[in-house]
């Protein structure tokens, strides 16, 4: 049954009005506040507590409702309930109760009760990476993030990341009982560190249930873009924060990437060969020097990059998801693959290694393969690799599969055309792109076709994990894995939990 509190005499931001607080769900719309100003010239206004309200405070005769709405018009009853793409803004509505303090206190209690019933996070641990993206994360935090959390009454503990790996260290030992979630104000890198830190804990099975939030403040913000886009929300810092405040959650597949005794967990992507994000970003940024060309500079710079196109020898093996069984060639001798999986099973260490993870034997007879050369192989967990690159339009957060994109021999003009369609994902329709979903995957990377003394680069969630001979930085960097021996990927379905707008 719907529960209503109606007041004849209320002032809303000083204007006399009649207001109704509805706490029930009888109408199907959830708890809401409605009011109509005296005189009736303005339309009835309403605020959905779940979709528009951050917090509430009762003060004497007043109840202050801290809202986050698209604009003044968006608070009209016509707009309530619809998904909006407009930019939201902070707005306070002060309800002065004619019936006095007692009525204000009662409204305050009722409103807070409604907000509490949504299960929103009350205590958050927030990482801020001051070096992410354009090094503005601290400013963004102070100007756009902190005020929203404060308005929502969320208790915040912040931690600036001091060095590479710091977020991982902290997440591996944080007292999780003190928080309802961990938030990363950063690019995807810190998020990945947090997931890896949690999975190296001895209590990882419990710890991995801790919801993780991401607020885009880096160069690569594929996860934030994927979450907001999937919910039909605008891609912005404030929308990402609001999603965390509202406390909706989504489970997320985590991919274990293993080579011998080395293991890393990925939530976004693994890439080999041409990079999806790099090329798109490069065309935006590096083409600046060709600004005099006008809009043709994008095409020109893409062309420059494609002229230097590299193709790599190697092979990939995979267990296809249902519906993709016809892709590639059947593997007749699976023993090598299974042997390697069995070796990996014995690898020590905490976290969902092969001993705890999904059983690999189930997939014993289903392996298929492609041989190179390859221009690019991308394995994606979520649709967006960066905010401007929709690498895997079919990817789902927790379907238990990785979406694989393979570009093999592709004429340069076609590659250019394909690249220019990366921003909406339509590039996958090209005949030069093979797109499939897999349960397990194995990459055996080889040398450049044009130069057998030179290898390629393998990148996981934006970090290089292996680089071959002759590649940039080979002499300076000690990578986690070796370029050459196979790298095995296994999906752990819905292992992690992430704050999501819906
Ligand atoms: N204080 C710091 N100094 C140097 N590196 C840091 C610091 N804090 C975090 N990092 C590292 O920066 C890396 C990238 O961070 P993040 O993803 O937030 O930003 P980004 O701009 O998207 O990154 P990038 O473009 O470099 O991949 C992470 O791996 C993280 O460990």
Automatic annotation (TrEMBL):
It comes from the Eukaryota. SMART domains: DAGKc. SUPFAM superfamilies: NAD kinase/diacylglycerol kinase-like. It holds the Pfam family DAGK_cat. Its EC number is 2.7.1.91. Residues 119-261 form the DAGKc domain. Keywords: ATP-binding, Kinase, Membrane, Nucleotide-binding, Transferase. Gene3D superfamilies: 2.60.200.40, Probable inorganic polyphosphate/atp-NAD kinase, domain 1 (3.40.50.10330). It is an enzyme of class 2 (transferase). GO terms for cellular component: cytoplasm; membrane; vacuolar membrane. It is a peripheral membrane protein. Its main location: membrane. One of its GO terms (biological process) is cellular response to abscisic acid stimulus. GO terms for molecular function: ATP binding; lipid kinase activity; sphingosine kinase activity. Transmembrane segments: none annotated. PANTHER family: ACYLGLYCEROL KINASE, MITOCHONDRIAL, SPHINGOSINE KINASE. This is sphingosine kinase. The gene is LOC100845384.
């Amino acid at each position: 049954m719907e529960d209503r509190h109606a007041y004849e005499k209320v002032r809303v931001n000083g204007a006399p009005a009649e207001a109704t607080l509805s706490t029930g769900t009888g109408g199907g719309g959830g708890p809401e506040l409605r009011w109509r100003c005296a005189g009736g010239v303005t339309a009835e206004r309403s605020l959905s507590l779940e979709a528009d309200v951050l917090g509430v405070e009762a003060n004497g005769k007043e109840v202050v409702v801290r809202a986050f709405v698209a604009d003044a018009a968006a608070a009209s009853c016509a707009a309530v309930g619809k998904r909006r793409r407009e930019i939201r803004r902070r707005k306070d509505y002060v309800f002065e109760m004619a019936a006095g303090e007692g009525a204000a206190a009662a409204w305050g209690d009722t409103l807070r009760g409604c907000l509490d019933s949504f299960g929103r996070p009350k205590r958050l641990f927030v990482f801020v990476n001051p070096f992410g993206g354009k090094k503005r994360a601290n400013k963004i935090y102070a100007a756009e993030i902190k005020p929203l959390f404060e308005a929502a009454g969320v208790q915040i503990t912040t931690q600036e990341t001091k060095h590479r790996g710091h977020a991982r260290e902290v997440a591996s030992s944080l007292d999780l009982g003190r928080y309802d979630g961990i938030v990363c104000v950063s690019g995807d890198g810190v998020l990945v560190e947090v997931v890896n830190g949690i999975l190296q804990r001895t209590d990882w099975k419990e710890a991995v249930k801790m919801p993780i939030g991401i607020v885009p403040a880096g160069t690569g913000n594929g996860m934030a873009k994927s979450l907001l886009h999937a919910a039909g929300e605008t891609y912005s810092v404030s929308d990402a924060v609001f999603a965390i405040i509202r406390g909706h959650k989504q489970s997320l597949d985590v991919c274990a990437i293993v080579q011998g005794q080395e293991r890393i967990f990925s939530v976004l992507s693994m890439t080999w060969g041409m990079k999806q994000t790099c090329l798109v970003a490069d065309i935006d940024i590096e083409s600046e020097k060709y600004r005099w060309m006008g809009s043709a500079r994008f095409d020109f710079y893409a062309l420059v990059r494609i002229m230097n196109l590299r193709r790599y020898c190697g092979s990939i093996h995979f267990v296809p998801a249902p519906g993709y069984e016809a892709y590639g060639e059947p593997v007749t001798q699976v023993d090598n693959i299974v042997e390697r999986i069995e070796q990996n099973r014995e690898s020590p260490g905490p976290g969902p290694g092969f001993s705890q993870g999904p059983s690999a034997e189930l997939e014993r007879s289903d392996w298929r393969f492609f041989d190179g050369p390859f221009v690019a192989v991308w394995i994606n967990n979520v649709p967006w690799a960066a905010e401007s690159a929709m690498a895997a339009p079919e990817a789902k957060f927790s379907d238990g599969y990785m979406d694989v994109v393979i570009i093999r021999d592709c004429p340069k003009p076609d590659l250019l055309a394909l690249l220019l369609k990366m921003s909406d994902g339509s590039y996958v329709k090209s005949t030069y792109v093979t797109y499939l979903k897999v349960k397990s995957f194995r990459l055996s990377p080889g040398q450049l076709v044009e130069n057998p003394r030179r290898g390629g680069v393998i990148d996981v969630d934006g970090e290089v994990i292996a680089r071959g001979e002759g590649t940039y930085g080979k002499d300076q960097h000690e990578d986690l894995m070796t370029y050459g021996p196979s790298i095995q990927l296994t999906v752990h379905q819905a292992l992690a939990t992430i704050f999501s707008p819906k």
